[in-house]
Amino acid sequence: MKKSIYIVGALALSLLASSCNDDFLDVEPTEQLSPEQIAAAAEKDPSLLNGNIAGLYSTMYNTGTGGTDLDHDDFGQKGYDIYSDMLSSDMALAGVTYGWYSRIARYQATVNNTDIGAYKPWRYYYRIIFGANTVIDALGGTDAEQTEPLKRHIMGQAKAMRGYAYFYLAQFYAKGYGSGSEKILPIYVDTKVPNQPKSTSEEVYNLIIDDLTQAVTYLEDFNRTSKDQINKDVAKALLAYAHAARGTQEDLNKVVTLTNDVITTGGFRITNENELVAKFDPETGALLNTESGFNNVGTPSWMWGVDLTLANGLDLVSWWGQMDYYTYSYAWAGDAKIIDKNLFDAIKTDDLRKKQFHSTGRPLYKFFDLGRKAGGQRQITTDYVYMRIEEMYLLNAEAHARLGQDGMAKDRLKELVSQRMPDASYVDALSGQALLDEIYLQTRIELWGEGKAYLAMKRLKKNVTRGANHLFEAGSTFAWDSDELTFPIPQAEVLNNPQLEQ
Prior knowledge:
membrane; two-stranded antiparallel ribbon; 43% helix; Serine Threonine Protein Phosphatase 5, Tetratricopeptide repeat; 20 helices; 5% strand; RagB/SusD family nutrient uptake outer membrane protein; single chain; signal; mainly alpha
């Protein structure tokens, strides 16, 4: 992979703290620092690397991080959450006035490696990897042991981010896991190696799991100052996702342990009714529960997210600018994103989550700016959620079910479902595949619009059938490993990396 592809702007990922001495700033301006200069500065003051870590986190929500200047679906992780929800078909595109996501919804970007839609996730996640490797190199390299608390915490976050990025690459660009001999992605563990050939699925997953395992260890005593940072609970959750995707019996037992740890010691609780769905005064129509809307990083169920403010400078080009009717957005102006009809019909009538959706399928009562004025929010101050505790309950139940431990799977599932409907006793009658299917359904319902159904589809090898309200391929069924559901390696990488097929 040439540097033109495997690169990140130094300005975004080498923001050094103001504690750096004036002489150094005069000689080596931060916006021009190379990885070698960053390493030299970090030898004098490792705390400078906190700026690089902050840059990594900002890459998750900044615009243009997928390598484009003008594309309005290029705004970091939440943009690819929309990609994945559309690929899984749980999210339908209900209008093409402006056309963003139409090539995703039509499965065109997944069958054509020249399509810019196949390029943006690749560029974004390798940008994260390069930034993480810059920090790892500055601390002595991927195999260097860290004993000082500050260095451990920085290395732990960098390795967690590298593991996160490779995990998503493996989901988007590999069809399955199989024997582990399938070659899927190039691996880069430092900033100096030349173009690399594709490594096997086994090698990629070994790296992901090694990185995230070390991150858990290094972050054990890290007390984060904001939820955009990865702490031990988020690292454990990412590690659980990786083990669940690989899916051996040993892996699944580790998923159970990791998710149990987060549930019991993480200090998070399940999203309650008032946070889950909007409620209104029957006479005035005023919103009664301002804790609703999935717009506040302080929500106790949110494990990982970012507090967006005016200083972040986000507007139309954002997740809210694509999804929220109550933001100045494409969803308001003509390109609504709605729930798949088949999935909506599968939600029980007494399930609170059915109330999150308008009769048109729009998520008007799940995600919204509190002003609730059509096209109202212009500058984004509503927050992004990357992960919440419900994911751990569902992963735990799923792992138990895959291990044949139906009783424990049902108990964990009921802990969640009992807070969504008045009677969860129907779960008691389920077993085997029927139980696993129900856990998958509940994952899709609970996490609609949050980018997690695609991950479940891949690891459980589920085919998808589009409902009647899709503009494209309505009623069509696609196998989980079909070309339509996985991106090809983009042409830019094929052309610029002669080692790719070695």
